[in-house]
């Protein structure tokens, strides 16, 4: 065995160039996979770390039923004194009591529905780290103090020292209200936390919610997050005598788990494609390195080496190269990952898109784990061995003469075709020489062209998947709520203040409906508010609609699953399935809606539930409540001809931006503004833009792998023809002519690869466009993504794929420059001797 190992090492050293080229392909492929997977894992790790570190803790102890029902009266009795019991449990690092509820927070004429948590200031610091994120003021101490996120402070125009009014539904069903002084502002970088979470001292919260001495939960941090299930089991056993439930963060935040499932599903699709491209690049290089050794194999068999021994030798050499390439690629990938794990990847330009991914902030820090390395290593080694064993086995079946002269047989078989192709004398002589070279060794040509073909097919699939995903998101989002263009008072998009309104709605509707691009127009009233039943309350956006006009603009009516859509003469409300579940509400149950009027006063009304809709988006189905526009006007104090906005549906969605720009010129002298759907749905737009950045990162890795693969095979195809090139130079061929010939070869191979890749990629996208990519196994994770359903239908948009296709084609040609220039500098005598 040692003798064969020395022989394998000797063969690898004997042809350092070929060995180095093969290793380069392995190193780049492994490094790319290590970094991409670390980037994806980093996003998931950051979401978990931020949400548990700033808000929930690793686990919570509730009174049984509180988590599902969210009823304030399902609280932990004071006499149980659970915080020290939980804190003393093995595996728990710290524990703190809390009281969590919702409140309508107001300052002057500004209001915002928020999650308000009463905390023990000293204990909370040991469980979460919100106190580390202060940007102004100080942390909580005692009394009527409130700690506010920077996002919420901006929406309320609040500063340290301002006094806020909080209105809540108390545990006994009454309305609780009090004033709190802003003593500090925090900024975590996570918009959901900064804009929707506030803290007050526990004693003040107990007074506000009428829960004197009681708490809704005990939050805890564990010593080792990997041991969380064990700690939960230990706590449940210890507390089994009491009516409590112990829940870890996966059950506390199902939307986070769902988002991670969705992110992983999409990531695995992308990673699979990258795996295929990397594997193709590695196989491409290994195949070429084995096939070009036909003469060497013939000599080995001529001196008595058996076919099986030869195959074993090739596999041993390939295993050594695969192991070394994997080790070096892993080191390179870990170095790149470590750099970005320290400095981070900056996505702050797409911070609104981060709102769809709970806990994700603007800076992403990649993280990796040994199990990922093992999977990558296994794939790389298996692919390399499979790529080597087939051509080696075929070569071992030949006689020594056949192995040494296999290329001549190929030449004879294809001579007639070659003559027909090159008989037209109008071809440039260099093109004829290039075609002759390609036809002389068809296997080498096909292997080289396949690198470009796999790269383009992967590009087309990835872009088709992304564009299908985004097209579905935009189409559904605009059809469910926003329409294509909206007209509103300036500033209403930032703050749904009731004093920002359109006064002459009828006249505006008529004018807008006459626009040639407009298919339909509908008035709306939009308000921030709270919806409550005797048990619990939730923050919502109240949308007053004119039913018949609204049906022409949006299609929410077709998403009804119970009851009926808003009626012209209706007196009830329509809510989403998710909100109905959270409130444990059914048809005909009455809900109390509370909003702030333009005067700053609070107004409430009780409405029966007439209908329940389900769009499949958790965000939409839990946050929007629809009511007849006449009822909304009465509740908020609007006149009959007043509304918050006018929504437009266009004949062609692509005309939304030009129409909005033209309307803004016409509205320049008014207090109104027109916004296209891109402006109305910044979360959707920025999610698309952020995902495109992800794709650019991924496609850059694919580009490098494809380029290296093509360059490797071109270098091998040139350097293994040293004798042939030496003869050409000896017969008077100039170096520049040789360079031009090799570039023509690369051009023809790139064209062949592009055609094959376009056909393969196009067929894959066309098939999936008909059948769809079924992601129903993780359908629950789509609830946090606006407009997405459980099937994605890829589409190809020419404007999106032509540029990367051209770049890939140019890359496939230009990588031939290096081997061409090397060939042009060959010494004819030395080259002929080498052969």
Task: Spell out the blueprint of helices and strands.
Blueprint: H1 2-14, H2 16-56, E1 59-63, H3 66-69, H4 82-87, E2 92-107, E3 110-119, H5 121-127, E4 134-137, E5 145-149, H6 150-156, E6 163-169, E7 175-186, H7 191-196, E8 197-201, H8 202-208, E9 217-222, H9 228-238, E10 244-248, H10 249-252, H11 254-291, H12 294-302, H13 307-343, E11 345-346, H14 351-354, E12 363-364, H15 370-396, H16 400-404, H17 406-422, H18 429-440, H19 442-482, E13 485-489, H20 505-513, E14 518-532, E15 537-545, H21 547-553, E16 560-563, E17 573-576, H22 577-583, E18 590-596, E19 602-613, H23 618-623, E20 624-628, H24 629-636, E21 645-650, H25 656-666, E22 672-676, H26 677-680, H27 682-719, H28 722-730, H29 735-771, E23 773-774, E24 791-792, H30 798-814, H31 817-824, H32 828-834
Parallel strand pairs: 3-8, 5-7, 15-20, 17-19
Antiparallel strand pairs: 1-9, 1-10, 2-3, 2-6, 2-9, 4-7, 5-8, 6-7, 11-12, 13-21, 13-22, 14-15, 14-18, 14-21, 16-19, 17-20, 18-19, 23-24
Overview of this structure, please?
- The protein has 835 residues and is α+β, with helices and mostly antiparallel strands.
- The protein has 4 domains: 1-64 and 256-404, no CATH class; 67-242, no CATH class; 407-482 and 681-835, no CATH class; 491-670, no CATH class.
- Helix content is 56%, strand content 19%.
- The protein has 32 helices and 24 strands.
- It has a 6-stranded mixed beta barrel.
- Helix 13 runs antiparallel to helix 15 (370-396).
- The longest helix is centred in the N-terminal third of the chain and has 41 residues, at 16-56.
- Residues 406-427 have low confidence and may be disordered.
